[in-house]
Amino acid sequence: MTSPRLAFLASSAESAQQALVTLSARYGHHPPADADILVALGGDGFMLQTLHRHGQLGKPVFGMKLGTVGFMMNHHREEGLLERIAAAEPATLRPLEMTAQTESGIEVHSLAYNEVSLLRQTRQAAQMSIDLNGQTRVEEMIGDGVLVATPAGSTAYNFSAHGPILPLGSNTLALTPIAPYRPRRWRGAILKSGTEITFRVMDAHKRPVSATADSHEFRDVTEVTIRESCDRTVRLLFDPEHNLEERIFSEQFVV
């Protein structure tokens, strides 16, 4: 059995760059388009960059933590990499598709593997309505913002905003307000993954709002529609003892 062709991708951190040189020399290196497996060296931020840049290739990604946060990464070890990849368990992620209209009339598109967040741009609170599958569910939400998170992203910004942790494979999304003033007691909702969510910004000139899909920000949006992608998926590979599904489940019991 031939060994898989590996493409090593590294963040700008010095430790990741050193690992890139060492691992490439030991296991060989191929361009991402020619590789069987992408190996991402860095933290969760770099993993998201890798998925955005190379997700369309459809190649599995094995990450190793060489950054500050590594929830989506395996432990970094130089030895036994091929054996680890052969024994790895896959986790399939389906990103969110975001379509946003800006105040200047431009339509923009982006993908998000963690979350799409709408945030106020100034000291003025954001004010918006929320439609689910074409039906208005929140006529007026006032606060710092609101976000939609995937299960994989539910332990990140969503959890910090007191949103629910969603099990991987649950076919759900988290709709979570950020510091809501009105409705004062609304704490968000858990939605079926096929739900189409539309946010309409009210008084966008006085209360400007930005939309961020993972790390891609678009300012002065007036309307944002979010839905789970029907045809885009990525596969992350994890050591069996570092299973992503178990890690997300365990986060619910961390006190």
Automatic annotation (TrEMBL):
Its EC number is 2.7.1.23. Gene3D superfamilies: Probable inorganic polyphosphate/atp-NAD kinase, domain 1, Probable inorganic polyphosphate/atp-NAD kinase, domain 2. One of its GO terms (molecular function) is ATP binding. InterPro entries: ATP-NAD_kinase_N, ATP-NAD_kinase_PpnK-typ_C, NAD/diacylglycerol_kinase_sf, NADK. The keyword ATP-binding applies. It comes from the Bacteria. It is found in: Cytoplasm. Pfam families: NAD_kinase_C. It catalyses: NAD(+) + ATP = ADP + NADP(+) + H(+). Its cofactor is a divalent metal cation. One of its GO terms (biological process) is NADP+ biosynthetic process. Its main location: cytoplasm. NAD(+) binds at D44, G45, N114, E115, D144, A152, T155, A156, Y157, N158, F159, S160, A179. GO terms for cellular component: cytoplasm. Keywords: ATP-binding, Cytoplasm, Kinase, NAD, NADP, Nucleotide-binding, Transferase. The active site is at D44. NCBIfam families: PRK04761.1. Belongs to the NAD kinase family. Involved in the regulation of the intracellular balance of NAD and NADP, and is a key enzyme in the biosynthesis of NADP. Catalyzes specifically the phosphorylation on 2'-hydroxyl of the adenosine moiety of NAD to yield NADP. This is NAD kinase. It comes from Pseudoxanthomonas spadix (strain BD-a59). The lineage of its organism: Bacteria, Pseudomonadati, Pseudomonadota, Gammaproteobacteria, Lysobacterales.
